[in-house]
Amino acid sequence: MEKTVLVPTDFSIASLNIVKSYLNEQDRNTRINIVLLHGMHQSDSITNLLFFSKSKVLESLTNPAFEEALRVLKNKYASQVRIMRKDIFTGFTQAAFNQFAEANRIDEVCLPILYNPQFKNRNSFDLLPFIKASKLNIITIGSAIEVPMPEKGNVAELFTNRVSMG
Question: CA-to-CA distance for 64 and 69, rounded, in angstroms?
Fold first, then answer.
């Protein structure tokens, strides 16, 4: 069996903890495609649109600790994860989001119970309203209790059992 799951991300290691917890709860025989999705408003400037590069935007949003944690996660779950990729959603409407989900064959969305993304870019936006209004199956993971995290922002955060974003 194969399925595709969407995980909203603010490109923090905490968002990768969501992926880790989701993968731990899945059947080992299921091949999973993971889309780490970030919402971002696109400029109206023609010049900016002409020189828009998704890969450069993604590169500016991530950091070395996130990339290292992503590599660790891919290696740890190599037998389960078929594809794990980062993407940005630049749409403004629910129809655009639904079309994105359909085009990417998203089966379900994985969200932490404590969902409070911390965006570093002023053009980033929360995908939660689009996700809740869609017909996608939403799976929540984690606890409603906030636990202090001494390793916050480090790759070591990936090895804790805390699941929240924010």
Answer: 9
pTM of the model: 0.84
Nearest to 130 by CA among 166, 91, 160, 161: 91
> CA 97 → CA 23, 89, 129, distances in Å?
24, 8, 10
Cβ-count burial of 126 within 10 angstroms (0-12 exposed, 13-18 middle, 19+ buried)? middle
pLDDT tens across 88-143, in order? 999 999 999 999 999 999 999 999 888 788 888 889 999 999 999 999 999 998 76
* Of residues 69, 71, 164, the one with CA closest to residue 118: 164
Q: Give me 142's structure tokens.
A: 């984690």
- Rounded (10°) angle between helices 64-76 and 13-25: 10
HSE-CB for 55 with a 13 A CA cutoff: 0
Q: What is the pLDDT of residues 32-65, one digit of tens each?
A: 999 999 999 988 889 888 888 899 999 999 999 9
